[in-house]
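Table S2 (text version). Query chain:
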Amino acid sequence: MNAAIIGATGLIGQLLLQKLIDSGQYENILVLGRKQPHYLNKQGTQVSFISCQLSELPSLVLPFAVEHAFCCLGTTIKKAGSQAAFIAVDKTACIEFIAKCEASNNYVVTALGANSQSSAFYNRIKGETQEALAEQLNQSQKPERSRRLWLFQPSLLLGERKENRTLEDIGKLLFKLISPLFIGSLKQYRPIEAEKVANSMLAHSLEAQKAQSASTQLVTLVVNQDML
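Corresponding structure-token output:
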């Protein structure tokens, strides 16, 4: 079983990469990105790194077939520099990565509130990405092999980032203080540790390995409350 991951230097991706290695379930793991992530490999899994810009994804030639593809890409308007640059990361690169891998099982982080009809730019782009991925997989179904998609929708992420995000850090502190008040229907909005998201992605991938044809559902939404 081979896997590929993009966004492995981010908050969720760096945790997920290590968990994929530690699981011992993958013979080869391909990491794509601009910077090589840090990891420990005690399982004998072959980890390969391809250094590339996101714009180069369509022209890449992968060294082996990929069964499981994991996309943990995510940025902010401030870091990207513009709405167009944000779209290039959170939408275009995500779609192109999944298209390039042609994996049977695909695991993508989007966001709570993702909705292509939203008036909020961030939520709208996340929603458009989800719809594009679902349509892409729907068009690529073949009688001999179906492709499946899991969309993970976390709320505000908690964890130690390498870069400084001042406003997000303030938000995290405030949400931590009021998190106990998020009960009932508000529970879905509770902040979530990045490690719980990574754990959920790994758990769904391992479950898929055990029951390749047990479900005919092509797209599965994994919402924040499920991961909590």
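Notes on Table S2: The helical segments are 11-23, 77-80, 83-101, 121-139, 166-178, 194-210, 224-227. The mean pLDDT is 89.
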